[in-house]
Amino acid sequence: MLKIALLALSTLLFSLLVTPIVIKFSKLLNVTDKPNNRKVHKAPIPTLGGVAIFISFLLGLMILQPDSNYHAVILIGAVLIVMLGVFDDIKSLSPKIKFLVQVGIAFLVVFKGGLQVEYINFPFGGQIEFGVMSSVITVFWIVGITNAINLIDGLDGLAAGVSAIALFTMAGMAIIMGDVYVTTMALLLFFSTIGFLKYNFFPAKIFMGDTGALFLGYMISVLALLGFKNVTFISFVIPIFILAVPISDTLIAIIRRYVNNQPLASPDSCHLHHKLLKMGFSHKHTVLVIYTLSIMFSLAAIFFSMTTVWGSIVIFTISILALQILIENLELINSSYKPLTNLLKAIRHKL
């Protein structure tokens, strides 16, 4: 494992060297992210950073050459998702087209590659088999996580940092589980992303664009499936913990738009990072706060996997309560949605 980690480290060097080239290439093609009322940057920024991450990752693959029955179909899906991202960064594709292509790629991985979540063993006994729904659940997971990383990509270094934290945690969990393939792939992606983050952290010289967000989201979703599929309910929850920040931000956005009678696909300025900025946090500090949340949930995932069933229930309950407190205090859904706060007030009043 140490040899794999040292060799994977070479992708950090590749990323540090490739990213400046991609910055110049993006500027040459005028592929930039222009400022608008929802964005916080004030000048056009090159936006093909995902290409740098992808190229660095491929160069790392050539050195380590990881092997798995799913490897070929995962790489085909990665190439297709990167192509989708590049087209979107250059031409701004419609959400419907992007969604349909993502579903098609997910179907390819599931039906051609055979990667599916087929059942879950419950901690107190019993098992639930998904049957024909296993394909639907797996496709939903891949598309959902892919878009969750894309939706959180709203500040300099935010999506890259959160993805890097998730990948590092997944690599650590894979080492514990003895999964060489997932360890290798997660480390290659981690170091590729860290090298890119040098140029992407505030103030950013380049954005990862949809190319990077979709690629990282896709790879994280697939590696999570490989590492934790067909095991216990406890293990199935682990990747949800690791990806708690982008998953919760996405689910909250869906709930918020439904409650406020807005189209589910319509963008808004009420995501976690928007709310932290409105509270007075600086751009840099907002990103660091969300990094801290990601690290906390990643640590919870590690403890969750190592403790007893009752210990896992306690960690899960505390995490849900902490998330609910965050939602209510930042008013992530709306100003009137505060059931926990209202309950505590009612109890205090009765006492």
Number of helices: 15
Largest sheet strand order: 1-2
Residue ranges: pLDDT <50 for 5 or more in a row? none
Q: Helicity level, as a percent range?
A: over 70%
**Strand-pairing-aware structural class:** mainly alpha
Radius of gyration: 20 Å
What does the secondary structure layout of this molecule look like, with pairings?
Blueprint: H1 2-8, H2 10-29, E1 32-33, E2 45-46, H3 49-64, H4 71-91, H5 95-112, E3 119-121, E4 127-129, H6 133-151, H7 158-177, H8 180-200, H9 209-228, H10 233-242, H11 244-259, H12 272-278, H13 283-306, H14 309-330, H15 339-350
Antiparallel strand pairs: 1-2, 3-4
Helix pairs in contact: 2-3, 2-8, 3-8, 3-9, 4-5, 4-9, 5-6, 6-9, 6-11, 7-8, 7-9, 7-13, 8-9, 10-13, 12-13, 13-14
